[in-house]
Each structure stands twice: as structure tokens, then as C-alpha cells.
Design goal:
About 40% of the residues lie in helices and about 15% in strands. The strands form three sheets. A seven-stranded parallel beta sheet has the order 1-11-8-7-5-3-2. A two-stranded antiparallel sheet has the order 4-6. It has a single domain, classed as Alpha-Beta Barrel (TIM Barrel). The chain has nine helices and eleven strands. The N and C termini lie close together (about 10 Å). By secondary structure, the chain is α/β, with parallel strands linked by helices. The protein binds fe (iii) ion (2 copies) and zinc ion (ZN). The site of one fe (iii) ion (FE) has 4 residues, from loops. Zinc ion (ZN) binds next to helix 6.
Length: about 280
């Protein structure tokens, strides 16, 4: 069973979003825990969440992959802003407890000139604090394209965060556009990249995938998503992904520049690629 889905709005509640997902052939989805560029979060609705969990179980959904706000930078330089980002993370994980057993993915952060080591230690401090209550959620560090001072463009950096936090509730979400732009050649050597991931981080930590093609060439450190098959990754990569023994059971989230019906077509394409 392939778990495929896309980013969906949860503004009408989770039950409504589950129905939308089903209407386009999705059996997982991603959602922003709050306005992706802002920090406002809707008040949680426990009954809606509970009903959505039942509906997803009935429809054999895979785990959801929530996405933290892009603006949440756990290693920003100013202490007050960093503290605020940490509060956002803490509140997001608290709210994920209404949807127990799902994933919360986020961008590790940008060190904005403080240096990678300082940034990583600040990210670890925030994660330790946010995970301390023991909510039923696994946080996933997203592999990044290595744009500017972004942390997470190298597997080694993600490994340092995982070790620094020292919790089993930290994993990785691999974004195909990001790793390609970051200089990991998944197009010509997917197995080699996965072996490197295994050597540095361990494939047991790989919990979810973001499926995006890339508008930019290999190693560009750019991060511009493209429709599957229309960019520098090409349809063949996604065919390899959906049939790969290590990857095929993971939730796969589309973040391509598409409409909801268009996502339905991409999901159908992925399902059609399964051999
Ligand atoms: Fe992301
Ligand atoms: Fe992504
Ligand atoms: Zn991206």
C-alpha cells in the first residue's frame, strides 16, 4: 500500500480535510500547524480530531506529516525571537497530541551567521524543551537544500541534531528537491545516497518523504519545487522511489506547485508507477 498525499488546508477542520484527501485518492496528507508564514494557530477541536482519527483508521491512512511554520527559526540570532520560536514549537507539539501517532516535520533553521555549531546547539536546546512533556508525536527534521545559512543541507548536520537531542522521537523527512539541490545525486545514484544516509544517520530514522521535482540543476542549493516529471529530477526518479524497498512504505507528501485536482493526478501517476 502506497501512502501518498499532498499539502491540504485544515481551515474547515480535520474531518473535512480527510474527505478532501479521499476525494483525490490520497491516504495521507500534510498540513501547516499554523499560518505557514505567520504564527497564528487555530484553537484545537478535540472532537473533530477524534472523528478524523476514526475516519483515517477506517480508510487505512498512513501517518500524517504536519509541517511547522517556515518562520519558526529555532536558531535565529536574537535571544527573544529564538525564545518565541521555541514557544511556537512547544505549542505545536502540544497540539499534535490531539492527533496522536502522527509526524511533525519542520525546517531545522538558519543560523544567520552564528555558525553551524551554534545553530545546531540552539536547535537541540529547543527540541529538548519541546519534547520534554513526552507528547505522542515524532518530530522530523527536513533535509534542506543548503540555501544561505540553512542547517540540514548535509546528513551530518541532521545526525548532530538527532544525537544532541538524544530522543527516539526525532527522525528525518527527506525532500527529493532539497537533497538534489543540496548535492545528493538521487537521480543517478539513489541507492548510493540512501547508503550514505544509512552510514551517517541510519535508515531507521527515515520516516517520511516530500516528493517534489526541482526547477534547478543538481547541487544548485536553490529549493524551487516543480511538478513531478517536469524538472531536473524527472519521472524516473519517482518511479524508483515508489518501488524502492526502503522508501515504498513511507508517507509521501507532494509539495509541488499544483491545484487540488492536479495533486489528484500526480497521486494517480505515482500509484500507476508501482510495479
Ligand atoms: Fe518543508
Ligand atoms: Fe519539503
Ligand atoms: Zn522546499
Amino acid at each position: 500500500m502506497l501512502y501518498a498525499g499532498c499539502h491540504l488546508s485544515v481551515s474547515n477542520g480535520f474531518v473535512d480535510t480527510v474527505r478532501t484527501a479521499q476525494s483525490i485518492g490520497a491516504n495521507t496528507f500534510a498540513f501547516f500547524t499554523r499560518n505557514p508564514r505567520g504564527s497564528k494557530a487555530k484553537k484545537e477541536d478535540p472532537v473533530d480530531c477524534q472523528n478524523a482519527m476514526v475516519a483515517m483508521k477506517e480508510a487505512s491512512f498512513g501517518p500524517l506529516v504536519a509541517h511547522g511554520a517556515y518562520t519558526m527559526n529555532l536558531c535565529t540570532a536574537e535571544a527573544g525571537a529564538r525564545e518565541f520560536a521555541c514557544e511556537v514549537l512547544c505549542d505545536d507539539l502540544r497540539r499534535m497530541a490531539y492527533l496522536p501517532g502522527n509526524y511533525y516535520n519542520f525546517h531545522p533553521g538558519s543560523h544567520v551567521g552564528q555558525g553551524t555549531e551554534t545553530g545546531i546547539s540552539q536547535i537541540c536546546d529547543a527540541l529538548k524543551k519541546a519534547l520534554a512533556p513526552g507528547y505522542p508525536v515524532t518530530v522530523l527534521l527536513e533535509t534542506m537544500a543548503g540555501k544561505g545559512s540553512e542547517i540540514g543541507g548535509r546528513f551530518e548536520e541532521l545526525k548532530m541534531i538527532i544525537d544532541g537531542v538524544g530522543s527516539n522521537d526525532v527522525g528525518v523527512c527527506l525532500d527529493t528537491c532539497h537533497v538534489h539541490d543540496g548535492g545528493y545525486d538521487i537521480v543517478n545514484d539513489l541507492n548510493g545516497v540512501l547508503m550514505e544516509f544509512d552510514r551517517i544517520i541510519g535508515l531507521d530514522k527515515l520516516k517520511a518523504l516530500h516528493l517534489n521535482d526541482s526547477k534547478n540543476p543538481f547541487g544548485s542549493h536553490k529549493d524551487r519545487h516543480e511538478l513531478l516529471g517536469n524538472g531536473n529530477l524527472g519521472a524516473g526518479l519517482f518511479e524508483n522511489v515508489v518501488n524502492h524497498p526502503v522508501l515504498s512504505k513511507l508517507p509521501m507528501i507532494l509539495e509541488t506547485p499544483n491545484t487540488i485536482p492536479g495533486y489528484g493526478e500526480e497521486i494517480a501517476m505515482l500509484r500507476g508507477m508501482v510495479r
